[in-house]
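To close the chapter, one final illustration. This time we ask the reader to focus less on the individual chains and more on the assembly as a whole: which components sit near each other, and how the overall shape emerges from the parts.
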Amino acid sequence: MISKQMQAQVQNSSVIRAMFEEGKRLSAIYGKENVYDFSLGNPSVEPPSEVKTAILDIINNEDPAAIHAYMNNSGYETVRDAVAESINAKYNTQFSRNNIIMTVGAAGGLNVILKTLLDPEDEVIVFAPFFGEYRNYVSNYYGNLVVIPADTADFQPNLEAFREKITAKTKAVIVNSPNNPTGVIYSAATIIKMADILRQKQKEFGSNIYIISDEPYRELAYDNIEVPYLTKYYDNTIIGYSFSKSLSLPGERIGYLVIPDQAADAEIIIAAANIATRILGFVNAPSLIQLVIARCLQAKVDVEAYNRNRELLYNSLRDFGYDCIKPEGAFYLFVKAPNNDDVAFCNLAKQKNILIVPGSSFGCAGYVRIAYCVPYNTIEKSLPGFKALIDEIQLK
Ligand code: PLP
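The assembled structure is written out below.
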């Protein structure tokens, strides 16, 4: 028999993945072009050409024994140098290779840092709506997830509720901005207030509380909105970055952690995270793709393609009468279910071959997530279905 913990995790296994499978089933019946699959955050924009050039160049010109070898569990020194330099140049920080640990995407990075920090029963705070996998990542290390309910007015974190929920057992707060599933960017004002609250609470409890900033969408911000770099606002910040969306490489599994020197116990955390990378079974982030991203740190995907999708979907749904806020980043739109029942609404949408995900998977029932990382004409073709859905509900 499988473990009790795993039994629960199988039971709650991702609704998003289930919807993705449903998309494949419907495509086989109706044809791919007649199914509007907005379920998964799989980038629709191709990786920048620099990625292919780097892969070919490395394969053709570098020593094969070196490029596929084991290395320091934290990653190649040269790659970590390049990553640190690029962060320093962008954000005026002072990181070195010692602060960087290459990871198996953001998911790998979050698991490494949670394994490093958590004792059983330690509390990890998240702000609803949040990426549902945090539930699993925290329970992997027997931590307790503490959810701060959403402030649906603007989907910025509810900081008064946050203040109340911090206890002596709070070890970390996961912040995700630009946010999956709302597309909201947490403002500098929000981050300043959050940091103030955390400093007060650390004093009150004589503890260290870490912000873990989960940043796969950092580069996907629209209208030149600034995404604050959190190490500048709060010393005990650890960044988890990913190239899954910024370079459209989700299957390659590559990202990094930044553990700044000014974080409390930084030295021991860095050493432990290196070991966590190994003993979780990752050993190290994939070698070839580490070398590739080191050459592509200036490269960018075509964010404008997502922006066009955002404008079309947001403006159309608003015209039809849907209630939603305009995303500032990432590639998700979080929409109020017009019948106030997210699961029922997703089922109704499925009948029109539109696949979307209930907000309850993100700890925010009554809303649905539409991942608009799809071809533009998928959105165009889906619009009559979205209109019919809300019209039918309003007729009842
Ligand atoms: N965190 C958030 C908020 C995400 O949306 C995702 C993926 O969609 C991840 C982490 C995992 O990203 P990665 O593919 O880099 O592991």
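The pocket of pyridoxal-5'-phosphate is lined by residues 41, 105-107, 131, 176, 180, 214, 216, 242, 244, 250, 255 (CB under 6 Å). The mean pLDDT is 96. With these observations in hand, you are ready for the problems at the end of the chapter.
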